[in-house]
Amino acid sequence: MAKKKDVILTREITKVYQMGEVQVHALCGVSINIQAGEVVAIMGPSGSGKSTLMNIIGCLDRPSAGDYYLDGELVSNLTDDQLAVIRNKKVGFVFQNFNLLSRSSALLNVELPLHYAGVKDGRREKAAEALQSVGLGDRVNHKPTELSGGEQQRVALARAIINNPSIIMADEPTGNLDSKSGEEIMQLLLEMNKKFGTTLIIVTHDPMIAKRTQRIINLYDGLVEKKK
Q1: Could you give phi then psi for residue 136, rounded to 5 degrees?
Q2: Structure-derived torsion over alpha carbons of residues 76, 82, 83, 85, reported in degrees to the nearest 10
Q3: What is the arithmetic mean of pLDDT over 48-59?
Q4: Would you place residue 116 in the very low, low, confident or very high pLDDT band (cuts 50, 70, 90)?
Q5: pTM score
Q6: What's the pLDDT tens digit per position in 17-36?
Q7: What average pLDDT does this structure show over 161-173?
Q8: Second CATH level (architecture) for the domain 6-224
Q9: Where are the chain's structural domains?
Q10: Which residues are paired to 169 by β-bridges?
């Protein structure tokens, strides 16, 4: 069987933030690889560099040094505009706090990435289909304040998949949900991986969530912990 390609490959990436006169080393030479279609958890205590690593591999930020290849393309030196184009095409995000526009309907929230991608035709229909796929076909006109936490996260998931990304990055996707809603979201994420081969990267503190993945990357003080 042929080995799957690395959709994410980092080589000794570092990230240093300047906080006044103090330099904060968030990542200190992180080298990881994630294959296409893999389900991976990124774990570590607060301050370990999880969010920084997620922002870099999700093309929301650039490393201070080192190389990052996404689908074989060196992206660590691209401009913000270039990163935004790649991000919108290849990566879908699901956040702990949902990050929905409170005054817009579920349908308009899900449409937003299509708008940014310059899609003009069929946006409403595609958004409705995405909401239907996460079980919210009857909630398209509801605003976030009219939805439960689990339903809001489903809207966020529909928004994440609207552009058919090859990668979904979920940052504590069940952190603000009760156990039943959290399980439903995990099932949806895993089904998308199984059905479409979507690469799934989950940043989590929850060992029960991490156990559902195929592999765990542990971070500590900006470094990948090596297996003992």
Answers
A1: -120, 30
A2: -150
A3: 93
A4: confident
A5: 0.90
A6: 988 899 999 999 999 999 99
A7: 92
A8: 3-Layer(aba) Sandwich (3.40)
A9: 6-224
A10: 93, 201
